[in-house]
Design a protein that fits this description.
Helix 10 crosses helix 13 (373-390) and helix 12 runs antiparallel to helix 13 (373-390). This protein has 15 helices and ten strands. The relative contact order is 0.17. Strands 2-3-8-5-7-6 form a six-stranded mixed barrel, surrounded by four helices. It has helices at residues 2-24, 26-62, 105-112, 147-153, 176-182, 213-218, 224-231, 250-261, 268-271, 273-311, 313-321, 326-362, 373-390, 392-399, 403-408, and strands at 68-71, 118-133, 136-145, 160-163, 171-175, 189-193, 199-208, 219-223, 239-244, 264-267. The radius of gyration is 33 Å and the shape is elongated. It is of the alpha+beta class.
Length: 410
């Protein structure tokens, strides 16, 4: 118990001396704390800004597509092997890819639903058709879906600008651009022609706007059975859409699911290569900013404490002559570095948070910037640790002072 009390008293003494040194030269302490606060505020604001921008880009891009799509394997030509000992010269044209159905898709859905890293699964049947109304004609993509399962992949209900997302029972949902081109609204009729005499006249139950002109002018949502009839794929589907829990693990998950199901697996990372490169570049830029700001903060703390060591030479000598061990002197200056980093980062984190809220309130409001508590906590921790590390060299220099020489120092 006495050892514990002695340790507490020693730590309390070190804390008092460290804070006394900082308070005695309050102007110097204030300036370095403001410098750390500015650096921390920059880190918080820039990181939150880039994170908010990335979230907005991902939401806008992936809000209209699945994370992973499973499709039937490509068809290929079957060429007979030549007799043994002969050479076969073949000029081969790739086989045209027709509309194919996924075999045993119900069993595949059951298997996928047991995978821990998958959040949602939805069957989809998709194929081309011609939409007609009066003299107007437009090539469209039929999207046969189960509305409950599909909206776990693409929450299209929030993109409805008229009517509701109701498919089945002779109802269809179309995009804003297609509705504009045909001059229709909710309650009007539209005729779909999938060729070979397969036609249907459907009621428009809703109009959506996904914010992508190509999709808003081509997508026509139906129920699965109606689409199977129009595309002549009874009981079949053409795509399995998947939403995963870890967005940036989609590539690895897709590769594994392709092996598991013997289907062609495409992740959003494959089909959006440029977007992925842009996100990685943004993240790298943020990390570089944080590193360089951290280095500048570290040098600022180190330079201030180096000056403090020179200024406090006589006090250090007196402490050493009174029996203070080298480690206690070392601890005092390390504490100063930690205190400077802590105070500056807390102030900077608060300023950065206020800057973000000002941007959200008074800015252009193109997107919302969230501020995670983990960002503020990590900024404070990193700045405090940086302060301790930056104080290491001045602290070691102070601890090595000879008491007799230090006391005579003027």
């Amino acid at each position: 118990m006495s050892d514990r009390t002695s340790l507490v008293n020693e730590l309390w003494l070190e804390w008092r001396i460290a804070t006394r040194f900082l308070v005695d030269n309050y102007l110097q302490t204030l300036l370095i704390a403001i410098g750390i606060a500015v650096g921390s505020a920059v880190i918080v604001f820039i990181t939150a800004l880039i994170d908010g921008l990335q979230i907005n880009i991902i939401d806008r891009t992936l809000g209209t597509q699945a994370h992973i799509r499973l499709l039937p394997p490509d068809e290929f030509n079957h060429i007979a092997a030549p007799p043994s000992g002969t050479v076969q010269l073949v000029l081969e044209s790739k086989r045209a890819q027709g509309l194919q159905s996924i075999s045993n898709w119900q069993e595949i859905l059951s298997i996928l639903s047991t995978q821990q890293d998958i959040d949602a699964v939805s069957p989809l049947i998709s194929g081309p058709a011609l939409a007609r109304r009066g003299a107007a004609r437009s090539s469209v993509a039929l999207m046969g879906v189960n509305p409950v399962q599909y909206q776990r992949i693409i929450p299209i209900q929030k993109d409805m600008i008229a009517g509701k997302f109701i498919v089945g029972g002779g109802n269809a949902v179309i995009g804003k651009e297609l509705a504009k081109d045909f001059g229709v609204q909710v309650g009007d009729k539209i005729r779909l022609d999938a060729g070979e005499g397969r036609e249907a006249t459907l009621n428009i139950s809703g109009i959506f706007s996904l914010g992508v002109r190509e999709l808003d002018s081509r997508y026509v949502y139906l129920d699965i059975k109606q689409t199977q009839t129009l595309l002549d794929l009874p009981g079949g589907i053409t795509v399995i859409d998947i939403r995963v829990k870890s967005l940036f693990s989609a590539d690895q998950i897709a590769e594994r699911l392709g092996r598991l199901t013997n289907l062609k697996a495409e992740s959003w990372m494959q089909t959006n290569g440029q977007l992925l490169n842009a996100l990685r570049s943004q993240s790298m830029s943020t990390q570089m900013i944080r590193v360089f700001v951290g280095i500048s903060v570290a040098f600022g703390i180190a330079s201030v404490l180096a000056v403090s060591v020179v200024q406090r030479t006589r006090e250090i000598g007196i402490l050493r002559a009174m029996g203070s061990p080298r480690r206690q002197i070392l601890h005092i200056f390390l504490l100063q570095g930690g205190i400077l980093g802590l105070l500056g980062s807390v102030l900077g984190g608060l300023v950065g948070f206020l800057l973000v809220q000002s941007f959200n309130t008074f800015g252009p409001k193109l997107f919302y910037i969230p501020v995670n508590a983990s960002l503020l906590a990590s900024t404070v921790i990193v700045a405090t640790v940086t302060g301790v590390v930056a104080a290491a060299f001045p602290a070691r220099r102070a601890a090595r002072y000879d008491p007799a020489v230090a006391i005579r120092y003027v």
